[in-house]
Design a protein that fits this description.
The protein is mainly beta and about 325 residues long. The chain has one domain: Glycosyl hydrolase domain, family 43 (Tachylectin-2, Chain A, 5 Propeller), CATH 2.115.10. It is about 0% helix and about 45% strand.
């Protein structure tokens, strides 16, 4: 388990250099007292492990930018990939307040040769909502301009790169307009928005946070997170405590039928991440969300093995250290 006594720890993602697992995580001081305030004080921390269980914290990866930067408020969740030339790219969400005081989210990146020292791209941001395919502040009744949590992966056929982003469309019901935004790039540096790979739905969610796609035991799956309070009534009725959701698909390129999503965890955990251990088995880690008293907990679980039960991805054995 990874935990910090003096800080709230929540969203996270991994990089694997072949010898060491690198954990990148959001954290903020517990001196804030109210854990809801953590979002606007988030930095990106970094820890390393050889077994996904014992972690050593190292120097932070990123902090928020200056007053005029796209990440002036906070640096939020992302993903890390390595280009063919050996350069590591850490894609992340830059957060700042709009003129009306609501949060605006855009995507930028930093690069590194060794996963330890990162340099922000001076041309950030590299991607943002367009207002037509994806909502902006002027076109949404949602509490923020949702365009965050970039998940970047190589095209399965070797044709460039793909990015999935938490976003919303300007159409559909308020709690059902969350979609998986899509963008493509030939080189990880320049990005072009595409149509979403999911659709808004009466069986859907207001936001599909922290997406990830993988092929688990030969079958594609999309993971995302959403509390049922931000989902359609039909979702709450079927799965009142769902939090991390899985959608089986024919390809990591989608499309994804969000109406078929099934929970892989209850709301005691949030932001599930899949990773393969050194034996090749798929594991799920998540952060501890709601405690017995109903309050926020924080900290990241030990690995939990996952597998298929028919069309559902399920946790085979819950972590003992929740």
């Amino acid at each position: 388990m990874f935990d910090l006594a003096d800080s709230y720890v929540w969203d996270f993602w991994f990089a694997d250099d072949g010898d060491t697992y690198h954990l990148f995580f959001l954290y903020a001081s517990r001196a804030l007292h109210d854990p809801e305030d953590r979002h606007y004080r988030a930095s990106v921390g970094h820890a390393v492990s050889t077994d996904l269980v014992s972690w050593e914290r190292v120097a932070d990866a990123l902090v928020r930018g200056g007053a005029d930067d796209f990440d002036a408020l906070a640096t939020w969740t992302g993903s890390t990939v390595r280009r063919e030339d050996g350069t590591w790219f850490l894609f992340y969400t830059g957060s700042r307040l709009g003129d009306d005081g609501r949060n605006v989210q855009r995507i930028g990146y930093a690069t590194s040769d060794d996963l330890y020292t990162w340099h922000k791209n001076p041309a950030n941001p590299v991607l943002e909502a367009d207002g037509e395919i994806y909502e902006r502040l002027a076109t949404t009744a949602w509490h923020d301009e949702a365009f965050r949590d970039p998940w970047v992966f190589a095209d399965p056929a070797g044709d460039g790169w793909h990015m999935y982003v938490t976003a919303r469309t300007p159409r559909g019901p308020l709690n059902g307009s969350g979609v998986v935004a899509h963008a493509t790039s030939p080189d990880l540096e320049t990005w072009t928005l595409q149509a979403p790979v999911s659709e808004p739905s009466e069986q859907g969610f207001g936001q599909l946070e922290v997406t990830q796609v993988e092929e688990v035991d030969g079958r594609a799956v999309l993971l995302f997170s959403c509390m049922t309070a931000q989902a359609m009534d039909a979702v709450r009725e079927r799965h009142p405590r769902g939090a991390v959701w899985a959608v089986a698909a024919d390809s990591v390129l989608g499309p994804f039928d969000i109406g078929t999503a099934t929970p892989i965890t209850d709301d005691d955990l949030y932001v599930g991440r899949l990773i393969q251990d050194r034996a090749g088995a798929w594991q799920l880690l998540a952060f501890r969300n709601v405690g017995p008293d109903g309050g926020f907990v924080g900290g990241i679980t030990d690995p939990m093995p996952v597998g298929w039960d028919g069309d559902r991805l399920v946790v085979k054995q819950p972590a003992l250290s929740r």
